[in-house]
Design brief:
- This protein is α/β, with parallel strands linked by helices and 402 residues long.
- It has two domains: 127 residues, Aspartate Aminotransferase, domain 1 (Alpha-Beta Complex), CATH 3.90.1150.10; 229 residues, Type I PLP-dependent aspartate aminotransferase-like (Major domain) (Aspartate Aminotransferase, domain 2).
- The strands form four sheets. The protein has a seven-stranded mixed sheet, with helices on both faces. Strands 1-2-3-15 form a four-stranded mixed sheet. The chain has a four-stranded antiparallel sheet with strand order 13-14-17-16, with helices on one face.
- Helix 2 packs antiparallel against helix 9 and helix 11 packs across helix 12.
- It is globular, with a radius of gyration of 21 Å.
Length: 402
């Protein structure tokens, strides 16, 4: 064993595979919208673990749900019924379009499961040749071989061998191109209501309505990826609701677990009819600990007035960011987003601004298209919103001086 094993080093530890460019900081505890480092420094968390910490850090309801379940049973596998899993599935179905739920652990798994479900649906209908899925440039659906192929980002594909087949990627918001791309082999159309990693690009509701109409016309499944937007992030429980449509299949993760790894594939019974025993599975999916936390998260978000409060906070943040744009026209090109998934398209390099925000003890997340993401907990206070915008202004001043 290496000398000093178990102790934190001065910088990145070579024992951890270097797949991330990490800030040299360790957080040992959190309180609501704040993270506290092992040096006692307080950081305002507007990254939320990349849209994960729906209710912030150390929320008492989530602590209670997890500790209560931890004293009972941690894991049984899906060889047996899991009471909390059935309860959470019922809650999700009652609050959405869905009639059936498959549990997994992450957004990538949820999107992978949605892809398999869409292909299996047509197989069950006697049309196995219908296995291609239309996706969109600038999207992000995860890091598995199938999901990086679905999104087609060259940086994510490089070095991983032949690209997984079965995806037709099209330009964003080109309805005619989508219809022309539909063939006898097309199974589904897959899209994020807001392209998170792609630069916080909200899909106009008319586009989503148009895709729903194309799916109905051609017998396709509409697959919505709400891994980042789901569970209240948009100001509604799910972002598809803003477009007054219903998908056939939906992938969620991140926010549903409030910090505990949890994801789901949700579908209508018709869409899911091919998913019979043996067709898909997950050892840890729907684990008793995860679904206990998921039930607590969903119960909190569905309380009267919670989502309306998210909408009000989102409006307040949007207005403050618009004022920031007016004050710093050399820094901000555009304010983007939906609900509390907000982005600033920047003129300076996004990395410079993220680093300057970090120096102001504000945590943010970079995205594509030179965008900085602001993703606070949904129960963030108005004072914390104002504080964050103030810190961004100070970060802009630092970037100006460099």
């Amino acid at each position: 064993m290496a000398s000093g094993a178990g102790a934190l080093s001065e910088g990145p530890n070579p024992a951890v595979m270097g797949t991330y460019g990490r800030f040299n900081i360790v957080f040992e505890r959190g309180e609501g919208s704040w993270l506290i480092s092992n040096q006692g420094e307080r950081y305002l968390d507007f990254g939320s673990g990349i849209a994960v910490n729906t209710l912030g850090h150390a929320h008492p309801d989530l602590i209670s749900a997890l500790t209560e379940q931890a004293a009972k049973v941690w894991h049984t596998s899906n060889l047996y019924r899991i009471e909390g899993q059935e309860r959470l599935a019922e809650m999700l179905c009652e609050a959405s379009f869905a009639e059936a739920v498959f549990f997994c652990n992450s957004g990538a798994e949820a999107c992978e499961g949605a892809i398999k479900l869409a292909r299996r649906y047509h197989f069950a209908n006697g049309q196995p040749e219908r296995n291609r899925i239309i996706t969109f440039e600038g999207s992000f659906h995860g890091r598995t071989l199938a999901t990086i192929a679905a999104a087609g980002n060259p940086k994510h594909l490089e070095g991983f061998g032949p690209e997984a087949p079965g995806f037709d990627r099209l330009p964003f918001a080109d309805h005619d191109a989508v219809e022309k791309a539909i063939t006898d082999e097309t199974a589904a159309i897959m899209i994020e209501p807001v392209m998170g990693e792609g630069g916080i690009k909200a899909i106009p509701k008319e586009c989503l309505q148009g895709l729903r109409a194309l799916c109905d016309k051609h017998g396709l499944l509409l697959v919505i990826d709400e891994v980042q937007t789901g569970i209240g992030r948009s100001g509604k429980l799910f972002a598809y609701e803003w477009a007054d449509i219903k998908p056939d299949v939906m992938a969620i993760a991140k926010g549903i677990g409030g910090g505990f790894p949890l994801g789901t594939v949700m579908a209508t019974n018709e869409a899911a009819k091919g998913m019979v025993p043996g067709t898909h599975g997950s050892t840890f999916g729907g684990n008793p600990l995860g679904v206990a936390v998921g039930c607590a998260v969903l119960a909190a978000v569905l309380k009267d007035g919670f989502l309306e409060d998210v909408q009000q906070k989102a409006s307040r943040l949007r207005q403050a960011l618009a004022e920031l744009e007016d004050k710093y026209p050399d820094m901000v090109e555009e304010v983007r987003g939906l609900g509390l998934l907000t982005g600033l398209k920047l003129k300076p390099a996004v990395g410079d601004v993220v680093n300057a925000c970090f120096e102001e003890q504000l945590l943010t997340v970079p995205a594509g298209d030179n965008v900085i993401r602001l993703i606070p907990p949904l129960n963030v206070s108005n004072d914390e919103l104002s504080d964050a915008v103030s810190r961004i202004g100070k970060a802009f001043e630092k970037v100006r001086q460099k």
